Amino acid sequence: MRPRVLLSWSSGKDSAWALHVLRQRGEVDVVGLVTTFNEAFGRVAMHAVRAELVEAQAASAGLPLWKVMLPWPCSNDEYELRMRSFIASASADGVSAIAFGDLFLEDVRAYRERLLAGSGVAPLFPIWGTRADTPALARAMLGAGLGAVLTCIDPRHLPPTFAGRSYDESLLAEFPPSVDPCGENGEFHTFCFDGPMFSAPIGVRTGEVVSRDGFVFADLLPAVDVRS
Length: 228
Known about the structure:
Helices cover 30% and strands 27% of the residues. By secondary structure, the chain is α/β, with parallel strands linked by helices. Strands 1, 2, 3, 4, 5 and 6 form a six-stranded mixed beta sheet that branches. Strands 8-7-10-9 form a four-stranded antiparallel beta sheet, with helices on one face.
């Protein structure tokens, strides 16, 4: 029997691509998606995506969504307390690993490994590589039909007008040389609405764009079906 694995699901393109890669390799059984939500607002932490859109992603991926609710504000101590409780529950349910869509940041990987150390649940990094790999990775995603939209922009790296734009070849061509094509340094975050990991696209439309806490967010809403 293949190991039972959960996938850390941010709602963005990298976690979606990690699901695709894990399924292609066929070495593990991905049994669910794990997402941390701000319990005060019902949105994904940092990406600020509405819970109903993440639920739609999980349904299209054919996987249950395992929610971890976080208070607002949330200290790192409280975050780790809730995550360790969740990890213990997952382990008791037969989960042997949690996969992450991290690409090359060593400090992020080391933090994941420390959080899981001694829990009986191992970390997996199915799309891990180097900084030099991300231009080709971005184009491989797009070539496979992945569709995503930028939900959060760090204006220190990109103009606020990038919020709400589609993640596509024309966008990549406009990135300054200092911006990682996959946004691994936090330059931007995405919501993935289409790709080989889904049975059908998730319909979304861009709502209000706001600046908050030093970032620019594009609020995504479920697409309105105008057919009668």
